[in-house]
Amino acid sequence: MAGRVAGGRHSRLPAANTALPTRAHAELPHPKGDLYSVIEFWNEVAPKDEALVEDDRRWTWSDLADRVSRLAAALAEDGMRSGDRFASLDKNSTTTVEATLAAARNGYAHVIVNWRLAPDELAYILADAQAGVLFVGAEFVPQLEEIRSRLPELTKVVVVGGDADEYEHYLASAQPVQRTHQPAPDDCVLQLYTSGTTGFPKGAMLTHRSLEAHCITAVEAFHLTRDSVNMVAMPLCHVGGSSWSLLSIYTGARTVIVRAVVPADVLEQIGRERVTHAFFVPTIFEYLLAAPELDSADLSSLRCLVYGGAPMPPPLMRRCLDRFRQDFYQAYGMTEASGAVCVLEPAAHRDPDRTHLLASAGRPVKGVQVKVVNPVTEQEVRTGQTGEFWIRSDQVMVGYWRKPDADGDSFHDGWLHTGDAGYQDEAGYLFVRGRVKEMIISGGENIYPVEVERVLAQHPAVAEACVIGVPDPTYGEAVKAVVTTAPDAVLDEGKLIAFCREHLAAYKCPKSVDVVRELPRTATGKVLKRELRRPYWTND
User: Fold this and answer.
1) Is residue 92 in some structural domain?
2) Which of 81, 121, 290, 313 is surrounded by the fewest CB atoms within 10 Å?
3) Which domain holds residue 185?
4) Based on the number of CB atoms within 10 Å of its own CB, is 133 exposed (0-12), middle (13-18) or buried (19 or more)?
5) CA angle, 399 as apex, 206 and 112 as ends, to 5°?
């Protein structure tokens, strides 16, 4: 089977405080640095309570504990050993959640692969992960067959769903055995690959410690309790899906798995399942607002709406706040930190005296330290000055799988370099200006694309905007805007540039504008700026 990796290479903070706002300590699992102990806890405390829901299928905590134990036993029978990796390639499914928990039980690492990737990308990740077993959704078997010959480490494939389903038989044929493996807190449980917006994906190794630390802080930040109902609609191959699903599992709440986001279905499920918490990327909010079913949807149970994964355009944010009366939270985070590291609270979204906070990523959650550093001198900058965000927390990964050079670039004395540039104000709010690598240097001036994109998004003819730097013989780089137009709008490029000049310094304004039908995106909604830059930079 695949090779092993030692954890715990980077210094960590003490475990975060586990206090919750509305629940006693005795009603939640105590931190043990062992993610599977959460399942043991709820199976003992509330075995007959519902744990997972997918479509019309429902599983109690007793059901879940049995299925996870059988899956762990089946993997062991197939030769999996502690430290080995196996993978899932499918849309959202309870089987993927079960696989993560089985990995936690037996000391394996679960790799969740993005099903939207091209064959070459799939082959790269599965080969890099050295996955010995793969659970593949029935509809993705053809893609797997196309690359199977390039995966010598893959010895077992189990088809999930469809007429050829093998997963249920795989579970039924295994007999649960007494758990004998006790993982170390820094053993990898979940290996998620970065989106690859700037190069080849890297496998971020999330551990028992990091995932549990995120559960503790995020459960408090978003006020999940035993009676919550948590909708998981974002892809489980992304931290916004997988880590979000673990919040309700940690809390003993009910988790509703959405296989594919269809706005009408999502709205119907919120009412039918009495959903209280949901996380969506901004694009999904756009779809929900446009759905005819929204006017008749029963959203009375909904308490918490969280957005993240990509910036929320100001016009869309205003429409959301006007239409939805629920509490809105922004989650700013990253795969390498197991999820959210900063949260913008509901009050900041609706405060007429602090409207500037809508441009903020929020303040660090409990247990997360942030400092803003000059990326060249590696010295901390003053409050209000722009630099790179560095973070330190138990939530942070132990490193990238088989990428020691990348670890060296990403860590300094226990601090994770996020690659995001911005500043922190006196009240502790972070304002993201863009990626350090995406900063445009024009005539010696530093220009952060997010600043320009926010202004472009205010123009009534613009639906979406992206800003890149392109070669310029005089200034080195020039600012280029790539935009999509609003429905029925006619865009005058000269007037758009003039509009920017009303709100920005001249050197920050676009020198040219490209109008496109749509912007290229990753599966999680992030714009692939690399694809937009490629025609202009031969080595990008």
Assistant:
1) yes
2) 290
3) 30-39+53-210
4) buried
5) 40
SS3 540: coil
Q: How many CA atoms does the CB half-sphere of 156 hold within 13 Å? A: 21
Query: How would you classify the pairing of strands 133-137 and 57-60?
Result: unpaired
Residue 412, number of CB atoms within 10 A of its CB? 13
Residue 330: strand pairing partners: 307, 344
In our burial notation (b when 16+ CB lie closer than 10 A, e otherwise), range 105-121 reads bbbbbbbbbbbebeeeb
Question: What is the C-alpha separation between 493 and 511, in angstroms, rounded?
Answer: 10
Tokens, residue 116: 């939207």
CATH number of the domain to which 153 belongs: 3.40.50.12780
Mean residue pLDDT across the chain: 89
235 phi, psi to nearest 5 deg: -60, 135
Tell which residue, 435, 255, 238, has the closest CA to residue 338. 238
Confidence (pLDDT) at 9: 39
Residue 512 included in any domain: yes
- Residue 448's SS3 state is coil
What local confidence, expressed as pLDDT, does residue 407 receive?
Answer: 79
Residue 351 lies in a domain: no
- At 524, is the pLDDT very low, low, confident or very high (cuts 50, 70, 90)? low
CATH assignment of the domain containing 458 = 3.30.300.30
Residue 540 within any structural domain of the chain: no
Supply 44's token pair. 């003992």
Out of 210, 235, 251, pick the residue that ends a domain: 210
pLDDT tens digits for range 451-472: 899 899 999 999 999 999 998 8
pTM for the complete prediction? 0.83
Distance of alpha carbon 46 from the chain centroid: 29
Q: How confident is the model at residue 26 (pLDDT cuts 50, 70, 90)?
A: very low
Residues 6+ apart with CB under 8 A from 353: none
- The token pair at 213 is 């630390």
Please state the domain count of the chain.
2
Q: What is the mean pLDDT of residues 420-429?
A: 95
Kindly report, residue by residue over 99-108, the tens digit of the pLDDT: 999 999 999 9
CA distance to 49, 501, 512, per residue, from 494 (Å) = 61, 11, 9
Q: Residue 93: what pLDDT?
A: 97
Domain limit, last residue, from 210, 243, 266: 210
Quick count: other Cβ atoms within 10 Å of Cβ 281? 22
Q: Are 509 and 500 in contact (CB under 8 A)?
A: yes
